[in-house]
Amino acid sequence: MEPIGVINYGYGNIFSVINALDYLNLEYKIIEKPDQLQEYQNVVLPGVGSFGNVMRKLNELDFNNAIKNYIDRDENLLLGICVGMQVFFSKSEESEKITGLNLLEGSVKKLTKIDKNYIDRIPNIGWRNNFVESNNKFLQDNLNNKETYFIHSYYCEPNEKYKDVSYIFRNQEKIVSSIFDRNIIGIQFHAERSKSQGLSLIKEIFSNWRNHY
Amino acid sequence: MRIINRLDVKEGFLIKGIQLEGWRKYGDPVKEAQKQYKSGIDEIFVVDVVASLYGRNNSFDLLRQIAKNVFVPITLSGGIRTLEDVSNAFWHGADKIGINSSATKNSEIISEIANRYGSQAVVVNVEVKKINNKWFVLIENGRTHTDWELLPWIEEIQKKGAGEIYITSIDKDGTLKGPDLDLINYVQDSIKIPTVYGGGVSGQEDIKKLQDFNFLSGVSIASGLYKLEKTVDFFR
Question: CA spacing 20 to 30 A to A191: which of A35, B41, B53, B151?
């Protein structure tokens, strides 16, 4: 497999991702400059932080256009995790004055506030079961009925045209937990901290997703 | 309900006391974390019990060792005072930060971390003790009293943007004598964010009692795991 580039935009928050890649025996390098992107066909955008702060950092380091150019090439794969997925959209209720990468249609919204039960509180923290309506075999095999670890206060609401998505239930409402759009993949949960099922998903995305779209 | 393994560490050793006092060594925290991960623990909460007392933080290397082969979320608590400490903790393997002492001195630190990393990254570690029929917040692992009463403190930390509360009953800590239902009843209407309870939990019966409180999203177990030499299956 081609090595994986892990984008480091500061804040020291990429350890858990590279630790998972180490464990999976997947070769990776840390990317700190936008022109390094062109050396890779597999890239991860990790996520800890707020939408605004991550975008400000990406803009400051000139990653914005470089990421767009990167995904223009069909053979390249981009995986965004948590807020790394959220910035694929153009706007978020978390940071209304700042524009996202605008790679996917839709927006990022705040989870509705419900106090009655822990499972519906904000942030949404804990292990939740994903389900998949799409017939895509990759999503069926790797996500349907798998528990993964969530920790977030905002969620992505992609345009309905995207069919290869997974969901979780929150107060009987469907919340998108991942989106697969050709060479752009976003996961809201932390696969790198989701036990063996999370680790295997990371490996499958880079080794196998290309055969399924 | 998530089951969280709390690992109290001091100078590289796993330790545990009773009511946060009289600590004894219980071996290697790295091995313990690995054992609990293998048996299906949902999360790990590492507390450096002397870090804030001595105004230092030397648990980062240990954190890295623990995080290396554990693929569930890890929180580091103890001695976190600045955004640089937070960044360092993330870099060494933490996914969330627990704060207690530094927040009681200046609660703005909660907002600072939340603004940079998001609320979900900030867990406020609340250690409480009943003194003359009032609940007070203690710091430095129960060594130092503060003027904060529990309910105003809960209100303050939620206002500042904490993402989660990790509440420990000092009276029950390490006793294996069941959860502090008195405390849980007292706080349940004041907390609006996800909450983890710790103190006295020793078996499935205790977990059942906690499940009656639907505001609790997790239970923290320390002695119940490593003093009793159990794994998480014992509690499910």
Answer: A35
**pLDDT of A116:** 63
Residue A12: pLDDT above 60?
Answer: no
Burial A39-60 (b: 16+ CB within 10 A, else e): ebbbbbbbbbbbbbbbbebbee
Nearest Cβ partner for B92 among A15, A125, A152 = A15
CA distances for B8 relative to A183, B3, B16, B72, B141, angstroms: 44, 16, 6, 18, 10
The CATH number of the domain where A95 resides is what? Answer: 3.40.50.880
**pLDDT reported for residue A112:** 86
Overall domain count for chain B = 1
User: Which stretch of A129-138, A197-206, B54-63, B71-80 has the lowest confidence by average pLDDT?
Assistant: B54-63
Amino acid A11: pLDDT: 67
Residue with tokens 């890649």, as numbered in its chain: A21
Six-digit token string for B17: 């006391």
Q: What is the 3-state secondary structure (H, E, C) of chain A?
A: CCCEEEECCCCCCCHHHHHHHHHCCCCEEEECCHHHHHHCCEEEECCCCCHHHHHHHHHHCCHHHHHHHHHHCCCCEEEEECHHHHCCCCCECCCCCCCCCCCCCEEEEECCCCCCCHHHCCCEEEEEECEECCCCHHHHHHCCCCEEEEEECEEEEECCCCCCEEEEEECCEEEEEEEEECCEEEECCCHHHCHHHHHHHHHHHHHHHHHHC
Residue A140 half-sphere exposure, CB side, CA atoms within 13 Å?
6
Residue-range definition of the domain harbouring residue A206: 4-212
**Active-site positions of B?**
8, 127
Query: Touching check for A128 and chain B: CB below 8 Å?
Result: no
* pLDDT classification of B52: cutoffs 50, 70, 90: low
Q: How far is A46 from chain B (nearest CA, A)?
A: 12
CATH number of the domain residue B231 falls in: 3.20.20.70
| Mean pLDDT, chain B, integer | 93
Domain that holds residue B28: 2-235
Tell whether B54 lies on the interface with A, counting CB pairs under 8 A. no
B98 touches chain A (CB under 8 A): no
Domain count, chain A: 1
Q: B residues 165-204 near A, CB within 8 Å?
A: 192-195
